[in-house]
Amino acid sequence: MSAGHRTPTVSVVVPCYNGGPFIDRLLASLAAQTFRDFEIIVVDDGSTDPATVSKLDSLPSAVRVVRQQNLGLPGARNTGFRTARAALILPLDCDDTIEPTYLAETVLSLGAAPAEVAFVVTYVRFVGARSGIGECYFNPFDLLFGNQLVCCMLLRKAAWQAVGGYDETMRDGYEDWEFAIRLSRHGYRGIAIEKPLFNYRISQAGMMMTHSSRMHGALWRQIRNRHAESYRVAEVLRLWWRAGRSGKIGLPVALGLLVTASVLPEAWFNGLIHRIRQMRIARQMRRAESVRFAPVKH
User: Fold this and answer.
1) Contact indicator for 190, 117 with CB cutoff of 8 Å
2) pLDDT digit string (tens) for 209-229?
3) Which DSSP state fits 153?
4) pTM
């Protein structure tokens, strides 16, 4: 891990709000990295849990802890990015972890890419309330209708600055989705490493399932309003012609989502999306249990 005042290659930015129980596991995954030239910045986003405050107070001096009043996840990330000394930044939520070769492989990949490649992601391994491997990829058309990326991406700080950082008004979620769309609209693109090097913890009590998923219609409407030009039919068709045909979301599905979101009452659309996600998680958990307890053939 980078020490002293020498500029590190990577800054790892960890937002933390009452996430003390996860810090040791996260730091262990960083200590196991085969690439060592990085700094760690933990942004305490106004934690109110005494155990979390105590845990952050006890961290080694090599871990920089930045404290602020509660601004929400996008505000905490922006604070970490502003504090970061490196030109490459990895936002990593405190309840997630990365595999030992994550930094080595993403730094090498981004270093070999042209300047318009703003970020590198990897495939994701879901843990907790959902299991399995998730594919991540960048496609400007598909990105308008679903987030195929994750918040954990090795990102050029210059790109974050150029698009204005994360939108701090999006405290209810999907700030990473909106940020990725903004990168795309500014002409940046991303590349994916087809290995599950990022471990994403999903909890039934977490923000995605208890909050963002229940507000999907409202949050997607905010995104569409922020990027209204991208959602005009002519622009949707243009993007589909240029990029969508190589993606995974077909034009009929995309247009159907737009119509459904426009016609259905927002509460119904929210409930539909939340129910679909609950059913998907339940199905994956049943599949995992059946594999776990399947009889061994001799």
Assistant:
1) yes
2) 455 667 888 899 999 999 999
3) -
4) 0.88
